[in-house]
Amino acid sequence: MTEPGPIPPPIPWPTDPIRTERLVLREAGAGDRERFVELFASPEVGVYVGGTRPRDELERAMPAVPGRRPGLFVVDRDGAMIGMVTLDRRDAEGPGGGKAELGYLFLPEAWGYGYAAEACAAALGWFAGVLPDEPVVLSTRTANERALRLAAKLGFTEVERFEAYGAEQWSGVWSPVTASG
Questions:
Q1: CA 131 to CA 96: how far, in whole Å?
Q2: Claim: this prediction has a pTM higher than 0.85
Q3: 109, 70, 83, 95: which is closest to 163 by C-alpha?
Q4: Which residue, of 13, 61, 121, 140, has the fewest CB within 10 Å?
Q5: Rounded to an integer, what distance in angstroms lies between the CA atom of residue 19 and that of residue 84?
Q6: Which long-range contacts (CB under 8 A, 24 or more apart) does 161-167 make?
Q7: Distance CA 25, CA 34 (A)
Q8: pLDDT (tens digit, 9 = 90+) per residue, 117-139?
């Protein structure tokens, strides 16, 4: 049996929202609850993330302030939630062993405007400022062509392809060192 490696440090969290030209990445609030329900109930969003949950089930189960935790940014455009970006530690025992992982989901009405690229780039820029030597991983289904294009645009490079959840998956890595030149 091998000894586990060192436990990576927790990801510190910003005290202030992150602002871009068009967006604010901020902590979740009670006013975001309905938009979280819409996001997780959306059939378009659910296509590549394992499906959707029924709206009535989400309404019953969703806390008054969903998503309020370190690692989750609400993406806000003009005062309304349009999506979310996450930076979480992967399970130390699983693939990517303890690395930070970027994730994101956006409401369909926000697709096609570059908001995901803008928000993810801002989150990665913030991350590189607080943990400058740490890489970030991202995984998506290979069938999700938009996600693969975004991964390339953000500077992720392919590490492997594997089968999971009944479909081929793509895994990539982003490094603040290579992203900055």
A1: 17
A2: yes
A3: 95
A4: 61
A5: 14
A6: 162/95, 165/50, 165/141, 167/141, 167/142, 167/143
A7: 18
A8: 999 999 999 999 988 889 999 99
